[in-house]
Design brief:
Length: about 350
């Protein structure tokens, strides 16, 4: 029986959904945030509503990139896919959720793995790069180490950096393809993977080489970061604390980067500890810093995670049957006669 047939069954996707939801609730611990004491609920409610805007912007960003590679998909259909991928990325190391997104894009919309892989590489690597660099610049600007004009200049240079790097022939995936991994994974399989990486690399080069595509990506990514910042500031407002935007984004962005680098599910405390430590450096009392971290989980991490779990259940229950004829048709339409991981 095919994988798609199994995943469509409630006996499979329902327990997984419940398990993901339990893991999400355990990690975010909403009961701790709810026990913060006297808070103004209005800013918290607004911050939760902003999480819905984040999910929509994820889909808009992904949709623009897919359109640029010739695989247009309506934004409304991408919303559950991007929400699901984000949640799986948070509960698994190394952004494993993106592999699931590639599979779903292929099954639901016949997007070949080279195109979806290129889009995901740009989204993940680009977003993390902008996340880290912008947060460090914001933090250094607030500390007075870097003047605002210089921070804006550096930020602009970093925004166009990927396009310049690819035009100069600097391609990270080329280095991966050159690794002698044939003996480790098998010569034939590594040959297929290397060929797939070449096609992904070529598509990435085409994407980052288009000013309009990169401008759209930068704008939507900046909007997502702005909402994250606003959410933390709204939590501060609910607690009676006015956070400077540079402090909010600098601390949150750097802490998120540390959590991502740890490869632990939800950062497993590294993000929270880093955020509290940076807020304390910025002059926020330690107790208030902890409350800010707990509140941010409540208004951002938890709603986005719940959206991802619901999206997983919805997508799994609607997977098309993967019979042999349909599989063959998909392979022909996507120009992938053989799956890059070696499965027909």
């Amino acid at each position: 029986m095919r994988l798609g047939s199994w995943l469509r069954r409630p006996i499979v996707w329902l327990p997984i959904s419940v398990g993901l939801l339990a893991l999400l609730v355990w990690r975010t611990r909403p009961w701790e945030a709810l026990s913060l004491g006297s808070v103004d609920p209005a800013p918290l409610l607004l911050a939760i509503v902003l999480s819905a805007v984040v999910v929509w912007l994820w889909a808009v960003r992904s949709g623009a990139l897919l359109t640029a590679v010739g695989r247009p998909i309506p934004v409304r259909q991408l919303v559950p896919m991007t929400a699901f991928a984000n949640t799986i990325n948070n509960v698994t190391p190394g952004s494993v959720g993106e592999v699931a997104r590639m599979y779903i894009l292929r099954v639901h919309h016949r997007v070949d793995y080279a195109s979806s892989g290129a889009v995901i590489v740009v989204e993940r690597v680009g977003a993390i790069g902008y996340l880290t660099s912008s947060a460090i610049l914001a933090w250094l600007t607030w500390l007075g180490t870097v003047p605002p004009w210089l921070a804006l200049t550096i930020g602009g240079a970093l925004a166009i950096g990927p396009g310049i790097a690819y035009r100069a022939g600097i391609r990270p995936l080329t280095l991966i393809r050159a690794l002698p991994l044939g003996r480790l994974v098998g010569v034939a399989r590594w040959g297929r993977l290397a060929d797939w990486l070449r096609r992904v690399d070529d598509t990435v080069a085409a994407l980052v080489g288009r000013p309009v595509s990169m401008a759209s990506f930068v704008v939507t990514t900046a909007a997502i970061f702005a909402i994250y910042t606003a959410q933390l500031m709204l939590v501060g407002q609910a607690l009676g604390l006015a956070l400077h935007p540079l402090v909010a984004w600098g601390a949150l962005g750097v802490a998120t980067t540390i959590g991502v680098a740890s490869l632990l599910p939800f950062g497993l405390g590294t993000t929270d500890l880093s955020l509290v430590a940076l807020l304390v450096v910025a002059g926020v009392p330690a107790g208030t810093g902890v409350a800010l971290s707990l509140g941010y989980r409540l208004v951002s991490t938890l709603p986005l995670g719940v959206a991802g779990v619901v999206s997983y259940a919805w997508l799994s229950s609607r997977l098309p049957g993967m019979n042999a004829a349909r599989t063959k048709a998909i392979n022909e339409l996507t120009e992938d006669a053989v799956d890059p991981i070696g499965q027909p």
